[in-house]
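Q: Predict the bound structure with adenosine monophosphate.
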Amino acid sequence: MGYAYDDQNIFAKILRGEIPNKTVLETEHSLAFEDIQPLAPTHVLVIPRGAYVNYDHFAAEASDAEIVDFTRAVGEVCRQTGVAPGGGGGGHRLIANAGEAGVQEVPHMHLHVLGGRVLGRMLPKAG
Ligand code: AMP
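A: Predicted complex:
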């Protein structure tokens, strides 16, 4: 398969501390920060620290420790921001865009955590 990782992408720069971010959570293998153009009251991006282009790349090549850390970080972000569906949270949507069809803009694996309002249908019906 073999994905080429561009280390000049904006999230690589955030991970290197070259540009600022509004950090929500830091773990050994993951970082969560606020999306710069939020589409909902809660819009957080969770990224692995490792050089993975997309979810497929991450799932295939990340270590078990990285995958566990990332998965737990997503859950923690949901709880911390109040969008975990249980315990009084309002619920959320997780989105991982990939490639052309997914309209991925930043080529570093990331999961969008969206919530804080009713988000509507997942996608408009195909026209
Ligand atoms: P995607 O289309 O899934 O690749 O989404 C990339 C996301 O990154 C968009 O929602 C952007 O608003 C967000 N984004 C781009 N640059 C930054 C940045 N410097 N800090 C935080 N979020 C960013």
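A: The helical segments are 10-15, 55-61, 64-80, 99-102.
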